[in-house]
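Quick start: read one record
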Amino acid sequence: MTRRYENEESGEDILRNLIITIAPIYIVILVFKWLTNKNNFWIWLLYGVIFLVILISCIIIWHKIKNKISQRKKDHIINIIKQAGLEEYINNFILRFGLGQEKSKDTFKIRNYSIDQNRINDLQDFLSQKQIKFSTSDIDILLSYYIEKREKEVTFESIKVTTRNFSELNGSDFEKLLYRLFEAMGYTVQLIGKTGDQGGDLIATRDQERTIIQAKCYNDTNAGNSAVQEIVAARNHYNCNKATVITTSHFTKEAIELAKTNNVDLIPREVLQKMLLDYLHESWN
């Protein structure tokens, strides 16, 4: 895992630096003893061997204790999330913000995931509202656990399933694929895409959430401002409280900026691929 703060020095770094400092001094002493007093040389060599054995033993014991403490802490954090029924929220957070959609120097990185620190602060505030007080290191452990779990599942599922291609789909096929996807996610879905659809292709409803979805099945073209403008109009027209644009391609920089201003969710190709694998167990390229 890439640390958010690169200047933080771990216990392993401190120990390594200490050994690097002591070793040359010890070698110089040995050379000096060999040249001046060979009897003392063997005594100092014995001291060095004993010290090395003790050091290695301490390191092994320290690592075992450290790993056990870390595992207990992780289990405690995960149990809190499970008992609060927030696993789906955490997975959604990772899926929504974990693929580096927001460029920032201050990020949490693990595997191919990159999450902006401001988003992590938002997650910390969200958990705090649920009476869950997690430190920054606790959030790191939490996200690492669910990302590693997700990636292992993705690997196993990818091995089992046959890969399909977005390029084989037309607009209607893509809408039907999204219909199946959102049904698998627990939504009640209406397929409304047709001529004169006012910019919306599907409406997905779950509890108090009513989402208008626009499907953009592109291969070589990025979705631009017009897609965001259309879905904003469709959100009002269909009386929805959320708006989402999903594409088999990517979004232009201008579209991303406009979406932020108008509170529109954008789901690019990489996020869509993960969603399809997670919920439909289908691999798409």
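Residues 11-82 form one domain.
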